[in-house]
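Continuing the series of single-chain predictions for the mutant panel. This is the parent chain; the variants come on the following pages.
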Amino acid sequence: MTREQRQQAVALIQQALPELEWTLQSAKIKRLSRDFHWFSPVLNQQLEGKQADAVVRPRDEEELRQLVAACVQQQLPLILRGSATGNYGQLVPLEGGILVEMTALNRICELKNGTVRAQAGIRLAEIEDATRPTGWELRCMPSTFRLASLGGLYCGGFGGIGSINYGPLAAPGNVLSVKVMTVEASPRVLTIPAPQALLLHHAYGSNGIILEVELALAPVHRWIERLDVFDDFADALNYANECLRSPGFVKRQLALLAAPIPAYFSHLKGHYRAGQHAVISVIAEESEGLCAGLVPKHRGENAIRQSGDEARENHASLMEYCWNHTTLHALKIDNTLTYLQTAFNYQHFPEQILQMEQRFAGEVISHIEFLRDNDGNITASGLQLVRYSTEERLNEIMQIFRDNDIKINNPHVFQVEDGKQGIIRPDVVAVKKYIDPDGLLNPGKLRGWALRDQLVLDNNPLSLTDK
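Parent structure:
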């Protein structure tokens, strides 16, 4: 479809649905068509100039249904947008079309004892604002929780804060169901239970329009946020590892940040010396006493301590210096940096972390997040900072990690499968064929779609209940 044909289709849809909330100004469309893919110099170049032809913000499911039906009639691409906090160009339109801003679909639909069901456009912090007074909180959330939407986390995220207990979002038991709209001439609304619901997880909104997500929750604790510093990287690693492996030590977040990363945190300067390594932890109030012995045991000292209540009141949580917020803070100081996404071997990750920190001598700077994997193993993931020189050197670095039994989840590619070791999943493609038979959702992001005729696809890949 040419640009002129897309513009004609947009004009026809706008004429048919004038009551929708339209954005047609080119500058606004360009801004709304971007996320944080600029963390990657590779993606920043590849996605330059890509944008939608129009933006629509449906106010309810009925307006969304009308828009979807009109796009199917015109065969115009649809791309879903949450809060645009993703890092891989998930929402950047490769072939134009209409960008659907989902932020008005932001209600909590049901809050029960230990579960919540909410619309895709709601911000994660708003969910916690509602659940905490009832004694529950989110099991896992990104460091962008104040801005990130539930649908964005589901379609483009992984896990984050809380994953040290509950694993990533895709770990069994975290997601209970999703409600999805199909992309057909007469769109249907389907309820998909877990585990089938996970076939739409982290697919960049390419195989279904997520309307609602139902999550299991975690019990609320009175949290303490700490930043402890160490002069030696090995001491910081050993402290973090001992905290991680102490089962009675109740925690929500644990991150290791090698120097000079703490120096990039401009709002925290003055609390520690340049050249020190840091461990950020979020621990239950009743467990903090253990730190009094562990920190000096590993030759460290406390630099910052605050309660979770203080952090929320001041909008100054240390959790917003973890996960990919770390990368954002660093890039504000040094825009020549980029980053990796790595997964260590759970059987010997401390040795791997130390080996890689020593091998790259400042070219790759360790940022380690501790968590459980899908199988419940205690392990570590890396969001290492890289002093970027060339794309070739970046690829060499990633290959060195692979050669040392450290998995790379490549953040410098925009197709779903290429970020996951190049594995094409026929079941994910089958879901797209079932829900989006014309391939209008976020075209170009699911590489397996172009190969669908070569794959053996299940004609009924989901257990579905019509609305």
